[in-house]
Design a protein that fits this description.
This protein is α+β, with helices and mostly antiparallel strands and 209 residues long. The chain has 2 domains: 108 residues, no CATH class; 83 residues, Immunoglobulins (Immunoglobulin-like), CATH 2.60.40. It has 4 helices and 12 strands; from the N terminus they run E-E-H-H-H-H-E-E-E-E-E-E-E-E-E-E. Strands 7, 8, 10, 11 and 12 form a 5-stranded antiparallel β-sheet that branches. Strands 5-6-9 form a 3-stranded antiparallel β-sheet, with no helix packed on it. The radius of gyration is 21 Å and the shape is globular. The N terminus is likely disordered.
């Protein structure tokens, strides 16, 4: 199975600071940059929700400094919420800049959201393989790992038009059962990393035993 490439433009990335106080400042920078920014009229989550989550994180960080019982775990939960908000906003920004035909315009929009730009000339389509298992109607899917930590979202289809999701995994391998024997199924996946959702993999087909 070969891997093909496709052209792409600038990609929005988050350079997240490791220390809490700097991460809070970075999140506030993104919020301020996107607030009233006409290029991003419908962010998800809303900027009001994002601001409230940042404030909750900052308050929890101050309480964590007191070393009160449970304060650090509570702070970490608020931190995860803000980081998830940032990843979703990065995906939203990327969806907007992908409508721009000019790489320069796309890069400028990314920077206007207080995010960094990664310039990519080509991207490799993720690899996936499938084989029949030792049980009728069961197959084993395997993907080339895309990152040290990633969530893999799997799908299968009989017509490559309507896709059925398979439970997500943290490993680059899964099994699909209860398929109809003697039918040809198609399979694909995509992965969620710190950079957001990646492209769908190649589609591979198999006559299920």
């Amino acid at each position: 199975m070969s891997t093909s490439n496709a052209s792409t433009g600038p990609v929005a990335v988050l350079m997240l600071p490791p220390l809490n106080k700097y991460l809070i400042a970075f999140a506030r920078g993104v919020h301020a940059a996107m607030l009233d920014n006409p290029a991003f009229p419908d962010p998800s989550p809303t900027l009001a929700v994002f601001a409230a989550n940042i404030a909750a994180y900052e308050d929890a960080e101050m309480k964590a400094e007191t070393r009160a019982r449970g304060a650090v775990a509570f702070r970490n939960a608020k931190k995860r919420t803000v980081k998830n908000n940032l990843f979703h906003l990065r995906d939203y920004v990327q969806s907007v800049v992908e409508t721009k035909t000019s790489p320069a315009d796309a890069a400028a929009l990314i920077k206007s959201a207080f995010m960094s730009v990664r310039k990519v000339s080509t991207r490799s389509i993720p690899k996936i393989s499938v084989k029949n298992a030792d049980v009728s109607g069961k197959v084993v899917l395997a993907a080339k790992a895309v990152a040290p930590a990633a969530v893999y979202s799997w799908e299968y289809s009989l017509d490559q038009s309507t896709w059925t999701p398979v439970p997500e995994t943290m490993k680059s391998r899964t099994e699909v059962s209860s398929l109809t024997s003697a039918s040809v199924y198609s399979f694909r996946f995509r992965a969620f990393t710190r950079a957001g959702w990646g492209d769908y993999s190649q589609i591979v087909s198999l006559l299920v035993h």
